[in-house]
Amino acid sequence: MVLLKAWAGRGTPLEGGMPSGHAAFAFSVATTVALAPVGSVVMLLTLSLAVMIAHSRIYMGIHSVQEVLAGAMLGAGVTWVLHLCFG
Description:
Blueprint: H1 2-8, H2 21-35, H3 40-59, H4 65-86
């Protein structure tokens, strides 16, 4: 994540920049829960929390929509691939 932020040249390793680390982590957790044998209520609550975290990053002006979407796709995508490889 830090390498991507350095490559994009915006933000610091822990604040702002491309991609959003908070969104990546939130959607990684939501993807893990969605791939686990849990009920749909738990899955929906976890996804809702990930969306709220992503929205808060945009609302507070810390990230742009593109940065949050990139983080969400990165977190969900990497987690999904890891589950395919090791699940």
